[in-house]
Amino acid sequence: MLTDTLRALGEPHRLQMLDLLRRGPLPVAEVGEALGLGQPQTSKHLRALREAGLVVAIPDGQRRLYSVRPEPLRELADWLETYRSVLATNYDRLDTLLARFEDTE
Amino acid sequence: MLTDTLRALGEPHRLQMLDLLRRGPLPVAEVGEALGLGQPQTSKHLRALREAGLVVAIPDGQRRLYSVRPEPLRELADWLETYRSVLATNYDRLDTLLARFEDTE
DNA sequence: AGGGTATATATCCGTCAAGGAATGTTTTGG
DNA sequence: CCAAAACATTCCTTGACGGATATATACCCT
Fold first, then answer.
1. In terms of Cα–Cα distance, which of B34, B35, B72 is closest to A83?
2. How many domains is chain B built from?
3. What ipTM describes this predicted complex?
4. Which tens digit of pLDDT belongs to each residue from A72-82?
C-alpha cells in the first residue's frame, strides 16, 4: 500500500537508511554505525522497512545483508505520475493561483 | 524537507485529501464530506498539509479554497530520481538478488 | 448591528511509535 | 560442544498523533 510506504519513509532515520542502502547491500551493524543508532533501534527500523516491503534481508553467515526492494518505490513513482499536470504547471506564484480561481468562478 | 512531505502523506486521510485536491481547489466542507470526516478533523489535517507546504488556502468569502502546492511533490520526484538505477534493475526475484551477492562477494 | 455559516483552535482521551536497556536466538570458530 | 559475534525481540517509558467535543473567530447577509 502506498500509505505504508509513505509512513515508513516519514521517519527520518528510515529515510536515511534507504538512501544508504541505495548504494548497495549492507549488514545491520554498518547501517547502525552510519546513522549513529544503537543496534536494537537499527534492527527495529529495518524491520519497519522490511514490513513495508522497502527492504529485503538476506542471510550471510551470522550477518544479514539488507538491500533496497524497488517495488514500493515504483508504486510511489506511479502515484507521482498522476500529478504530472499539477507538477508541470507553475502554480507557485500566488497571483497565478488567484487568477485561475477567478476564471473558474 | 523531504521527511516532512513523506510524514504528512503517511496519514491515509491526508493522502486522500491530496488526491482529491489534485483535480482542483475545494473548500473545507467538501473535502471533509468527500472523506467522511468531521469539520475539525478536516481542518486539522488540512493544517498539517499546509504546514508541510503541500497545500495552500485561499480566502473566498467565508470559505477557504484549498489547492495543491506542487513544490514538495517536485522535491519528492527529484529524490525518486536518485533511485533511477535501482528502479530500472529487476531486483524482485530472490535468486537474482542472491546471484548478485555471490558475484560481489 | 445581529444571526447564521464556514472555518479554525483548544482540550481531553486513547493509541501508537520511538528510544533505551536487557534478554533471546542463530551462527561461526575453536 | 562452548563461547563469542551479529541480530532480533521484549519490556518499559515517554512524546506525538488522530478522533471527538466544545468553543472561538471571521465573514456574509439582511
1. B72
2. 1
3. 0.88
4. 999 999 999 99
